[in-house]
Amino acid sequence: xxxxxxxxxxxxxxxxxxxxxxxxxxxxxxxxxxxxxxxxxxxxxxxxxxxxxxxxxxxxxxxxxxxxxxxxxxxxxxxxxxxxxx
Length: 86
What we know:
The protein is mainly α. Helix content is 86%, strand content 0%. It is rod-shaped. The model has no long low-confidence stretch (mean pLDDT 89).
């Protein structure tokens, strides 16, 4: 019972942490765990990690776009400042 609780909590924590390095272990548990609750929780945690991975990629793309816009904005302000007052 204690081993089950420890493993169950570790699987939940792996899903919450969102670390893709846990995916191989979670995938093994999905197929090899004797207890159906562990298989289900491993599946759910792995799915959460995969979904968050997509969200992170999208977030990184948005950050890169924002930085490009900031850079463009700075260059435009410099060009306008170089022209002097209107």
